[in-house]
Amino acid sequence: MDHFDIIDGELHSEQVSLEAIAEEVGTPVYVYSAATLSRHARVMKEALASLDDPLVAYAVKANPNPAVLAILAREGLGADIVSIGEYRAARAAGMAPGDILFSGVGKTASEMAEALEGGLLQFNLESVQEAVTLSAVARDLGKTAPVALRINPDVEAGTHAKITTGTADNKFGLPIGDAMDAFAMLRGLPNIDVTGVTVHIGSQLTSLEPLETAFRALGGLIDELRRQDFALRLADLGGGLGVPYGPGQPEPPTPADYGAMVGRVTANWGLRLAFEPGRLISGNAGVLLTRVVRIKPGEHHPWLIVDAAMNDLMRPALYDAYHHIEVVRPGGGRMTVNVVGPVCESGDTFAMAREMDFAGEGELVVFRTAGAYGAAMSSGYNSRPITPEVLVDGDRWALVRQRLDLASAAALPLPEWLHGRH
Ligand code: LLP
């Protein structure tokens, strides 16, 4: 459920008119609803309420806006981070060091050192080689690093290939068959404390089955580790639960169904559980608000050209992702159009042959479910500015990231040797 509704014929975010935001900030602009973010955080926590002290660590990569993180910190969420930039953002937002998990295959020694000094719950490591580096870093700092190994259970997640992470052809985790040997090696490394195991098989999962298969495989490994006297404390079950993207799209299981499955599968694990939801928390809490630049006639359907583009919302170009498109002031009948942005690539296409409410030149439309992996993945391609972000809370709103002209922000004077060159 989200808080984007029609009030007096016009789409609002909570009590705020999207037209008013577009008027003041310009378009395109991302708009987030604080009430929706809080609601999703609470729904996830309620779904896991029967577990003993679960940790919900928001996957910061989904939407790292400081205002978003601050709301989630207030809801008591921790953070799953994949870079030192995300670590700093989580800490600045008020997330406790003891609620931070550090994931990712390519952590550098300097990132490890900063996180270890600043404090964290656990490094989720993806290889023995990574553990060797961390051991040296920890020894130099005179500290002990809490670590989990990420297991790759070779389970097909049933989602888009580019967001599948738990098969043998993905770079992530250790093959489960190699796990016992890897754990044994970790035990021999100085300044390493083996605290847990972790698994994450992909994103936008619309069935619980692959998750259950992966968790059962992890359960088998936990048993074996116990028999070898590893004193594990935490099993991190990753993120990945899908969200509804709109009409005609797969309906994912509810967080409550997910929580019930987890409760069943992990009943006798005797470990604290952690979760890393990203999309579930922020996906439906945001829209990308854009204005129709013009309608160009087309061979099969007219081209509805909007002022947002693939640089603002990459998901359709990258994953053929569906984003529901709504008109801010509906009522002008229906139309079937190809919805595209101004970028000079054919991939800059949001939807082909989409039947939707009529929107004419100058009118506002939104791309729904843009709160996760939207602004987070934006770029300045075609010398387009980075799109600003707005947070709505009840009847108030604020700009929480300004429009950024990368070309001028990153510009430097030309090197002298380039002057006067013919
Ligand atoms: N934990 C780990 C280790 C991850 O790699 C991810 C996502 C998550 C948690 C959060 O997954 P979520 O709950 O959001 O599904 N850009 C893609 C999604 C990439 C997901 C990367 N990893 C998209 O727009 O669909």
UniProtKB/TrEMBL annotation:
The modification N6-(pyridoxal phosphate)lysine is found at residue 61. Pathway: Amino-acid biosynthesis; L-lysine biosynthesis via DAP pathway; L-lysine from DL-2,6-diaminopimelate: step 1/1. It comes from the Bacteria. Its EC number is 4.1.1.20. It catalyses: meso-2,6-diaminopimelate + H(+) = L-lysine + CO2. Residues 30-371 form the Orn/DAP/Arg decarboxylase 2 C-terminal domain. GO terms for biological process: lysine biosynthetic process via diaminopimelate. Substrate binds at residues 279, 315, 319, 345, 373. InterPro entries: Ala_racemase/Decarboxylase_C, DAP_deCOOHase_LysA, De-COase2_C, De-COase2_N, De-COase2_pyr-phos_BS, Orn/DAP/Arg_de-COase, PLP-binding_barrel. Residues 37-282 form the Orn/DAP/Arg decarboxylase 2 N-terminal domain. Pyridoxal 5'-phosphate binds at residues 240, 276-279, 373. GO terms for molecular function: diaminopimelate decarboxylase activity; pyridoxal phosphate binding. Gene3D superfamilies: Alanine racemase, Lyase, Ornithine Decarboxylase, Chain A, domain 1. Belongs to the Orn/Lys/Arg decarboxylase class-II family. LysA subfamily. Homodimer. Specifically catalyzes the decarboxylation of meso-diaminopimelate (meso-DAP) to L-lysine. HAMAP family: LysA. This is Diaminopimelate decarboxylase. It comes from Sphingomonas xanthus. The lineage of its organism: Bacteria, Pseudomonadati, Pseudomonadota, Alphaproteobacteria, Sphingomonadales.
